[in-house]
């Protein structure tokens, strides 16, 4: 009875993606190591290594302390890749194909085959061995009645393929639309800020926290600042950048007292004068006060230290 292959798309979650990436790496390693061993045996001994020998090699490799990272993926794909190598060599010996080449990360298709004993299929849900949750499969067409998969092959889109190029174009268009919407929002926000205020004070603050820096980059703060700066000339507004060393967060906006220490995770604090502050609101008030002071008295004006 002839076998038929059905191709479907699935979307792994982050945990499944990590497991598949590890499996792809192990499959590639086993294939290359077995190919190297079989090539060596022929070059040095003029001997063809049998599939049974490669199975024993695989068992020995698993016990090697350097391959302890094989423990996570299922053993099924590792055994399957040895079968694929045997088939490639058989085709070479029969002059139906060239000699198998080594698989290189990023240059060959990442794929892993799971035989029937390495996955479960129940009510249209497929779960691979060593994975706790079923796949999110897009069943673009139903399987024929009574058909149960005998093998599941997982692969990524091939680099350089037409489908991959189409996906790359779609992703680029999505990112382009996101950038356009973000830019449009920043234009509207900067215009609204300048139309509603005669003076705008901002803090010239460098960001050293890498996690926070990514969030600020996503929010496009530098781009918003540039827009506010050049549009201020259009509307006759004044933009003042407060010195980065100005203690805007640690200064009480009510009495001017500067606290000695204020950790970044302290979002609310209370001054000795009794004023309770939200960190961000207090900072904004101090920046505005400093900006208005600069407008009235000139640059370099800072509240006195207590």
Structure description:
The structure is a single chain. It contains seven helices and ten strands. Helix 2 packs antiparallel against helix 3. It folds into two domains: 149 residues, no CATH class; 116 residues, no CATH class. The strands form five sheets. A two-stranded antiparallel sheet has the order 1-5. The chain has a two-stranded antiparallel ribbon with strand order 2-6. Strand 3 and strand 4 form a beta hairpin. The model has no long low-confidence stretch (mean pLDDT 84).
Indicate how many domains the architecture comprises.
2
Alpha carbon gyration radius:
32 Å
How would you classify the quaternary structure? single chain
What characteristic shape results from the CA principal axes?
elongated
Low-confidence runs of at least 5 consecutive residues? none
Report the portion of residues in β strands.
5-15%
């Amino acid at each position: 009875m002839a076998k038929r292959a059905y191709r479907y798309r699935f979307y792994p979650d982050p945990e499944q993606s990590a497991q598949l990436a590890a499996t792809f790496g192990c499959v590639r390693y086993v294939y290359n190591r077995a190919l190297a061993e079989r090539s060596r045996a022929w070059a040095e001994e003029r001997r063809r290594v049998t599939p049974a020998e490669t199975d024993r090699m695989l068992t020995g490799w698993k016990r090697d302390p350097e391959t302890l990272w094989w423990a996570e993926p299922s053993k099924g794909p590792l055994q399957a890749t040895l079968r694929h190598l045997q088939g490639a060599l058989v085709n070479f010996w029969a002059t139906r194909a060239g000699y198998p080449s080594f698989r290189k990360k990023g240059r060959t298709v990442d794929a892993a085959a799971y035989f029937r004993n390495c996955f479960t299929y129940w009510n249209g849900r497929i779960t691979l061995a060593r994975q706790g949750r079923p796949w999110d499969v897009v069943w673009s067409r139903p399987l024929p009645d009574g058909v149960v998969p005998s093998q599941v092959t997982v692969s990524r889109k091939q680099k350089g393929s037409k489908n991959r190029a189409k996906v790359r174009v779609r992703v680029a268009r999505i990112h382009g639309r996101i950038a356009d919407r973000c830019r449009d929002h920043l234009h509207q926000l900067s215009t609204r800020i300048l139309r509603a205020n005669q003076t705008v004070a901002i803090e010239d603050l460098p960001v050293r926290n890498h996690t926070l820096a990514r969030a600020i980059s996503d929010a496009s703060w530098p781009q918003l600042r540039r827009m506010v700066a050049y549009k201020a000339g259009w509307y006759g507004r004044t933009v003042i950048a407060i010195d980065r060393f100005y203690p805007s967060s640690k200064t009480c906006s009510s009495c001017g007292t500067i606290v000695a220490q204020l950790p970044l995770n302290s979002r609310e604090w209370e001054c000795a004068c009794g004023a309770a502050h939200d960190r961000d609101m207090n900072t904004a008030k101090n920046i505005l006060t400093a900006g208005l002071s600069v407008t009235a008295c000139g640059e370099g004006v800072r509240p006195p230290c207590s």
